[in-house]
Amino acid sequence: MTDFALPLPATPSVAIRNSQQRFPVRRIFCVGRNYAAHIREMGNDERDPPFFFTKPADAVVDSGTVIPYPLATENLHHEIELVVAIGERGVNIGRDAAADHIWGYGVGIDLTRRDLQDVAKKAGRPWDWAKAFDHSAPCGPLTPADRNSIPHSGRIRLSVNGETRQQGDLAEMIWPVPDIVAICSQAVELQPGDLIFTGTPSGVGPVVAGDRLSGEIENIGVVELEIAARR
């Protein structure tokens, strides 16, 4: 038996819809710029191929959580996204075989320290400090996948204090779920427990302490979050 110098950290996990079990989270991959309207609102070229960035597994928080306004930012933004949960390992997965590797789907919010991201972009630096911070990956309960059905369409929306901020359809994704799984697996071996945040529609914007966020994806689920004061 291995003797560790420190107590082992808790295993990050996500709730499962209508179950007492939880889905253990191994890694979080995020797709940048996967909805044309969002690409345009951020001033980028929608013809660019997809790219990925990561968040730490322990960035996940359950729906209904109250999180502190993050450190080191004055411009925290919301980005509602479909989340794909991987259940079977695979490398160089063909898009036609993607469904065999998917365990389920959920609704996530990619919280972003936009001011830090803007600085990183201008300096040509990584986005880690803008994306991979504490509590930056809220995720609602996962819905187990129907192996015969991948969500290619469905309304996706997010409201802040009851006001709709983001609204679109999964059909607007430039790279649909099978492509995202296939492309990601060309660079890393996907493993059970991996989550993939698949990009956000247009309408991203700032939130402040006291705001309540509510997101949903048709036939997938919901995620809710409240922003408290900075610690």
From TrEMBL:
Record-listed E.C. numbers: 3.7.1.20
GO molecular function: acetylpyruvate hydrolase activity; fumarylpyruvate hydrolase activity; metal ion binding
Pfam hit, one: FAA_hydrolase
InterPro entries on file: Fumarylacetoacetase-like_C, Fumarylacetoacetase_C_sf
Gene3D superfamilies tied to this protein: Fumarylacetoacetase-like, C-terminal domain
Domain of life: Bacteria
Record has Nucleotide-binding as a keyword: no
Signal peptide bounds: none
Residue ranges annotated for the Fumarylacetoacetase-like C-terminal domain, each copy included: 28-225
Keywords: Hydrolase, Metal-binding, Pyruvate
Name assigned to this protein: Fumarylpyruvate hydrolase
Lineage, top ranks: Bacteria, Pseudomonadati, Pseudomonadota, Alphaproteobacteria, Hyphomicrobiales
